[in-house]
Structures are given as structure tokens and as C-alpha cells.
Amino acid sequence: MKKFITFICIAALSLLSAGNVLAAEIRLRESYIEDTGDYRYYLDERNYVTSSQQLGRIVENVIKFTYNDYTYVSLTKDGENCEIVSGGYIYGDGNYTLTIGNGKDSGSINFIMRQPSGELSEDENFYNKSVLTQAYSAEQGLYSFSLGGLYTFYSPIPNYAVTDKPVKLLTPADDRMDITAYKDGEEINYSSGKTFSEPGYYMLSLVYDSADIDDERYTEGELQGFSEQAMDNADIVVDDSYFNIADIAIYSFVIIGGPQNKLGFINPPQDYTISSVVLDGQKQPVSTKFFKPVNDGNYRILFKNSSGILPDYTLNFTRDTAAPTLRFGNVGLGGIAINKFSIIKDSDNTVVEVFRSGVPYENTAEITESGLYRITATDSAGNTSAYIISLKKKYTAAYLLLIPLAIAVVVGIKLYSAYIGKNIHIR
């Protein structure tokens, strides 16, 4: 008996050990999607995350993650949990870890995000990467940004700022300046004086061609001699300064619009630090480098310039993660309504959509058609709630009076038919 118990214990320990092996960290499999240019990271065939950027390296742009509802996904930034929503955008300097789970196993991948520096060619010697020099004009109420003293443009907010207001950019014309604008990573049309008002992540890539190339430096014959094979075999010292033909810099900002439910970490603008954070009138503990809103409410974040040359910059926004609620008239337990029901919103800003048997239905104050209804409510922050109501028709008193009358008519017809049948004689 003791040997049997010992055997059972050893077997149980073996199973636990096997379980630990099964629950160990799994290496995520990376796949590139040519049609969209995205990258997909698989834990298994069912559980994966699609990323707009390749991970496992330094990422220089905003990232969009998408995944299924049944996939467990978490994200940390500098060791702290970071809010992540499928279809939402992640931005801001830091060391990130993306974890994918399926309820049993998990896998993770690290990446570093830094302020975007623009798209460079394969040979970075063709560019001088520059940091924009910021100044401020109180008379104009505008920030000025100088690209190495070669070019200057203007904006109402500092570089890398988060704002809840529209942004109008003024970029003077210069034949040597090439400006490309992006919204959420996609190129958009741009011209000086354009005002950006829709929520999103915006970036301007500025490339200034200031080179004065001496075409007579080499003869045509010498240029033809610079074949790829000749360059590989020859011991040639390249003067890098000759190939630095353009200066490149990045200006970016985020417009958050109204109330937020997806806003994660907030980084200070260029040349600024976080000075204070106030939530509903109460000061909050902060780091000078970043802030992550946790509780719902009205925030006021004050950024200060370390040199004192630039003015204070303030961001006000409302965090709202509470789903909107609807009330219904004439709806009983179990979501059952008889003959009719009405929809009552908790706020004028709530958008209500009604579907009857899966088909969009005109939203009216009172619904009277029988059927199964799915009703969704979405607030200005993007929070959503859904309700299911079944509307049934109940016979009225008039209909109830007609039922015995109909029965009497049917019975009368049958009795009359029987009487006629008995009294008909065939001669």
C-alpha cells in the first residue's frame, strides 16, 4: 500500500512538472502581411496580434494593434501596465513588452519606442538628422521651429505635444523644402495654412535639400567607372560630408478631441517636463517624464520648459471609461415589452442605434412593431453598451370578444350543415 501511495505521489509531481512545462513562455512566431504591410505575431493559430510596425527593435512611429476578443493581450511600458485596446494607437517613448495569452500559455516580445525621426533611406549618410530648435513669439502667439537655421515654420503648440484643440500650421514656401504629412501613419494631403481638427496622431516629415553638388567633380568616364563591382574591390575612402545632401527633422502632435477612454501614457512636449497634474481639483503624484491617467474625471496637466524661455503649456481633457446607460419605458423583466416600448437616453451626446432582427431600424421615441431588438448606445468618448429587447403583441379586449364570436360562427356552421344533411331526401 505504501509503495502504491508513493507511486501516486511521484506520478502527481510528474504531471505538475509537465503542466509547468506546458505553461512555460512560448516564443511568438512573426509573419509579414504583404497586402497591408502589417506584421502578425502568433502564439498559436487562433491567438495572435496584428501590428502596424515590426516589433523586437526600436520603433519610430505610432503603432496600431488589432486582435480578437478571445485573445488575452497586455502591454507594459517601463514596467507599468499600459492600457491597450484593439484598433487603438500606442505612442510615446519607452521600453514596451507585448504579451499574448490563450488562458493556458503565453508569449511576449519587447520593443523600444522613441520619438519618430522620419523615414531614412538605406544609406543614412544622405541625411543630416536634425532636432528642431523651438522658440516662442508672445506677440504672434506661435511657436517657431528652425531646422538647422535653414528653414523656419510656425505652430500654436510645441513639438510632440498633445492637444484638445485644432492645430493650424504655417510652412513658408521654399523650393528646397519637401514636407510630407501623415495621420495615424498614413500619408495625407498638406499645404501651408492647413488646419488639423480630427482626433489622431499627426506627423510632418521635413526634408531640406541644401546641397550644392559640383557636377564637375568627376568626369563622365570616372562616374561610369563607379560600378558596384569596382566599388567592392577598390580601396576607396569616401568623404561622407560630400554625400550629406539633405537635412531631415520631424514635427508631430496628437489631437485627442473630446472625452477619452483610450488615452494611455502622456509624454511632455520637446524641451518640457511635467510639472503638475490635477484631477477634479486634486493634485496627483507625477513623474516629470510621463503620466498615465488611471481614474475618470477632468484632468489639467501643466508642462514647464526647463530653460524658462518657452511659456508653460497646459493640457486639459476628460477621461471617461464608463459605458452609457439607457432606460426603457414599458419593458419588464427579461427585456420583454408588450405592444410597445420607448428609449430614454441619459445624455444628449449619446448616439443610439436600433436593429430589428439584425436590420437597422429607424430610431423612434416609441417602437410598436413586434420583433427582437438590439439597441446600442455610444457616448462621445467611444464607450458602448448594448441591450436586447423582445417586443410582443398582446390581444386587446376587442380581439378577445371576437374570439368566442368566431367560435360560435364555426359551431353554427357545423350544426347547420349536420341539420341539412339529415333532412335532405333523395327520390
Notes on the structure:
- This protein has 427 residues and is mostly beta strands.
- It folds into three domains: 19-113, Sandwich (Immunoglobulin-like), CATH 2.60.40; 124-212 and 240-319, no CATH class; 322-421, Immunoglobulin-like, CATH 2.60.40.
- It is 15% helix and 41% strand.
- It is built from five helices and 32 strands.
- The chain has helices spanning 2-22, 220-224, 228-233, 240-243, 397-423; strands spanning 29-33, 38-42, 48-51, 58-59, 63-67, 72-77, 80-82, 89-90, 94-101, 106-113, 127-129, 133-137, 142-147, 151-155, 161-163, 167-168, 177-183, 186-188, 195-196, 200-209, 246-255, 272-279, 282-284, 297-305, 313-319, 326-331, 336-345, 351-356, 359-361, 366-367, 371-378, 384-392.
- Strands 26, 27, 28, 29, 30, 31 and 32 form a seven-stranded mixed beta sheet that branches.
- A hairpin with a 2-residue loop joins strand 28 (351-356) and strand 29.
- The longest helix is centred in the C-terminal third of the chain and has 27 residues, at 397-423.
Present the secondary structure layout.
Elements: H1 2-22, E1 29-33, E2 38-42, E3 48-51, E4 58-59, E5 63-67, E6 72-77, E7 80-82, E8 89-90, E9 94-101, E10 106-113, E11 127-129, E12 133-137, E13 142-147, E14 151-155, E15 161-163, E16 167-168, E17 177-183, E18 186-188, E19 195-196, E20 200-209, H2 220-224, H3 228-233, H4 240-243, E21 246-255, E22 272-279, E23 282-284, E24 297-305, E25 313-319, E26 326-331, E27 336-345, E28 351-356, E29 359-361, E30 366-367, E31 371-378, E32 384-392, H5 397-423
Parallel strand pairs: 4-10, 11-21, 15-21, 27-32
Antiparallel strand pairs: 1-2, 2-3, 3-5, 5-8, 6-7, 6-9, 9-10, 12-13, 13-14, 16-19, 17-18, 17-20, 20-21, 22-23, 22-24, 24-25, 26-27, 27-30, 28-29, 28-31, 31-32
